[in-house]
User: Fold these one by one.
Assistant:
Number 1:
Amino acid sequence: MMTITAIIPTYRRPKDLTRCLEALKQQTRPADEVLVTVRDIDNDTWALFKESNFHPLPIRTLTVTVSGVVAALNAALDAAKGDIITVTDDDAAPHPDWLERIETYYLSDDRLGGVGGRDWVYWQGKLLDHGDTELVGQLQWFGRVIGNHHRGVGTAREVDILKGVNMSFRRSAIAEAQLRFDERMLGTGAQVNFEMALCLALKRNGWKLVFDPAIAVDHYPAQRFDEDKRDRLNEVALVNAVHNETLVLLEHLPPERRAVFMAWAILVGTQESLGFVQCLRFLPKEGKLAVRKWLTSLRGRWLGLQTWQQCLREASKKEITSK
């Protein structure tokens, strides 16, 4: 048997958190430890724990004084005692066999560093149909990231990237390379693309990551109390997301593929992070909004490149100083 820590970062969503904790109470394989990270200024959540009893869950609350999901998860990583570290969002509800299925994978393969699954997305009480696909969690050779974790079907398969709402890691794999979630990620809340750095680092170290759609959570995307409002363009949020993706990929990709990635990102891009071709594609429908998205995406790419170059310079200085 292995021990399991379930981590839930939360901020000002007590009703959603209650649903998540109630789902953890129904697990066929109970968690050995449940860590809930709570901001020091989050009075609503602190009131929930004063008023409610989630027995028999072995809950520990951790106070976080820095905004953003990265600081919350790193605080939980430092405190976690389990052999398996699972992560879900406060606006999700894991299926009853979630932990049981995750543990089975780790017991069956010693080289498995991470396991994740599908999130079934509900909006205003209705299950959304995004269309199913078997192409999930892949980093293509030229740098395009394919998520689709909310659409994944089929059998279990190895992937490059897991999704934050439904992921887990072998604690010894993280500890082996002294890995943490990347604190350079921009954003004051969601810090979009924060999962990528840790997942790709585990892959570089020889660990396998597996996605199995049968490992499932129901996901009820809730209000965010930061610049990313999900349902409308916020230029700061888009810059942050593109910066984070660019920084992680420039660090991960080998030199000959970095230039290809930047050229593709600027010339083509995706429907979320527009390049020139995508801007032309959406121009007839969105007009000036498409141009705004394109220019904002370019700014995010430029900032990500600057951050990466600055990190290279700092690493070079350290190397020279140590000699």
Number 2:
Amino acid sequence: MLDNRRFMLIAAGLLASLALAGCGKQAPIATPTGAPAARVYVVGTDAAYTPFESQNDKGEIVGFDIDVVKAIASKAGIEVKFVNTPWEGIFNALGQGDRDLLVSAITITDERRQTMDFSKPYFDAKQLIAVRTDAPVARFEDIKAMKVGVQNGTTGDEVVGKLQGKSSGNIKRFESTPLALKELEAGGVEAVVADNGVVVHYLANNTAGGFKTVGDASFPVEHYGIAVKKGNAELLARINKGLDDIKADGSYDKIYAAHFGSTPK
């Protein structure tokens, strides 16, 4: 009986010693490479703006903007993930930190610079008017009394608002430019004002003809930029360096030609 009690006490002591030794030697869990996982930068884009960004049949986000940012990221040594983000909330998502950067055919403006920072311009654009071929429209002023479709919150919305008055009942605002152009096809509006790249691509690929485009000298050249949160100088510098690199080695021209059929002029 005494031997059994002594054995139990010795065994308990050994177990306690082993437990303490195990706690003292426990090492932190490391990744297989011993390095922390690389950060993935979340890129917000409104994927309804062909040929700049859209979703293919597999649900993948594709387009000119997407290819440009992928090439920049490769040069900058960063990983990116694209997330479809509705235009109406895209800037709030950046400001709140839900997105690290934005690429969505975003025109650089002084007003937007107050709340976000932009990369160097990566694309030049102008507004363009789309109307039926027989419409008596030769300049911007000619649509002043017409029903005009625009994408809400875009430069097209701004210029038409200045022409007709921001609260004009003749301005019909849509979630995307393709929706505005569909309304033009259906006869619900008489004209659409939007960025030239989107208008030209849509009319070339989605209608059977019967429409024309009209430019106007009053439309200034606009510059698209990649947006980052205000004050994020480190990320902005990496993006600008990557953009410089893809322009220098010809990658940018190849991407441009693949989407627009020619190199930039």
Number 3:
Amino acid sequence: MAERDGGAVINADALQVYADWRVLTARPSAEEEARAPHMLYGHVPGEVAYSTGRWLREVRQALADCTARGLRPIIVGGTGLNFTSLTSGLVDIPETPPEVRARADALGPEALRADLAARDPATLAAIDAANPMRVQRAWEVLEATGRPLIDWQAETPPPLLPLSATVPLVLRPDIPWLNARIAARFDQMLAEGALEEARAALPGWDPARPSAKALGAPELIAHLRGELTLDDARDRAVTLTRQYAKRQRTWFRNRMKDWRVLDIGPETRLSDLLAAV
């Protein structure tokens, strides 16, 4: 689409922003990046926390750059919160102090979820409570500001890019086909150097870093530490990726109802998808 329409590909994936993981997060290859301008990929060091708020600020600049260069912006990725914040608005919540984040990291997802259930059940009911990153964010906001996340969200400003100004598309894959592709893709990642990426990250590995949430990263680190065989690490990573894909489908179905759905499967041709947009 970028080649056809003179466009730029803008990343909306929360983990493809990190420099550490080119292979493991399936960032576009150097060959793909050479075919069209790409923005917001691999520009954040692995030790840096990266929020949806920061992404929106960077997207604002990327859209301005596209306008100045006469490029069609094509925003792609799998992080539903980024898309809904872009098209529905996101309140500017104060940054989490490092000491609050350190306490959250030390408590862990289960304790944070239990504390939210006691202190802020309304927010817990409104977020994806199975997503540890969303739970931790809600706990940090409550702890740092004294106000529930859901109250902050009630003050949401106008969106940066209203849905009416876009061509909003959601790909809806055939699930058995997708599950097979997830397994094949992880095997391809291993063949292309994912284990070497994990080995490079091992000396300074910190599971509390946002970049450590890359699917497959903790499992490959566990293998390099002798805690899992490579086959076990691979199988766990594939299972976790399939579970994440299921949560994505639920998010898209519940939060992106006004988006146009394109069904894809083993018989889908790229030419058919391009013709639809």
Number 4:
Amino acid sequence: MSPAPRATQGARTTQRSTNSADWRDVPLAPVVLLFGPEDFIASRAVDDVRKKLREKNPELELTSLDAAHYTAGQLGMVASPSLFSEPKLIEVGALATMNDDFLLDALTYIKDPAPDVTLVLAHGGGTRGKKLLDALKVVGATRIECQPLKKDAEKTQFVSAEFSLARRRIDAQAVRGLVAAVGASLSELAAACSQLIADTTGTVSTDDVDKYYGGRVEATAFRVADAALAGNAPVALSTLRHALATGVDPVPLVGALAMKVRQVAKVFSLRGSSAQLARDLGMSPWQVDSARRDAGHWSGAALITAIKVLAEADAQVKGAAKDPVYAVEHAVTVIATAARP
């Protein structure tokens, strides 16, 4: 009579779906899937699981497996109870390139996970291994999305959250400066947040960000763009010439200008709250506020002029002209003089 309950349980199981959770606070579960290519988020999620398990039992036994070079039977052997019955954490990487032996063993294991064992599976994204991914969804495994943060709005939210978790404050312009300076890499952005939290006191300001990261190419480019969009030609040109003299490539300078002009063009003549426009335009509220302030220096005709000169400058600094330095200087001059101070 014993098989009947298992069949009934299986029927109920098919109604489950993957439980999505926040990578900063991963709920402990028998099986956790980390899905996506952002290694930093995956590593933070794993660290959170390890910390929680070790808080429950410092004698946690940790094992790492590679799904691409897996030997049949390894998972069952590692998950089996040890002599002293310590809890176990099994971390498996390379699910996107798993071999058939791992697939078969994993499909069997997740239907009936071992007690006191946490299995964390890391998949770099895509559809490879779909059979296992579908099976994880059926059994209700916890799923952590590890996707890159591509939009500035996402990165600013990330910075704000890092400071909130540390019970520290950072002003909006400092967040913007930090994202501009080190936002290309999420791990680098997190390290910058940690450094500022450790090395400063009180509210972190733009002066603090400039002190540590003001020499970065991205930060310099946005200072040039800020001055140009505000119609401050002397400051824009002096900052630009200093940047070029210290070896800054013209390409990111034109890129920063283009991004600022696009933001101004998006909010130009629009009405509504910053929050509403931020949702509609895929920007953060502070970006909307900043673009609106810049828009006060511009007319529709001047914006058209700026967009045209930037299109020309973008082509020129990427090889269409022999003198990319002149191209970016010309663009900055046209934009700064087109804006009303």
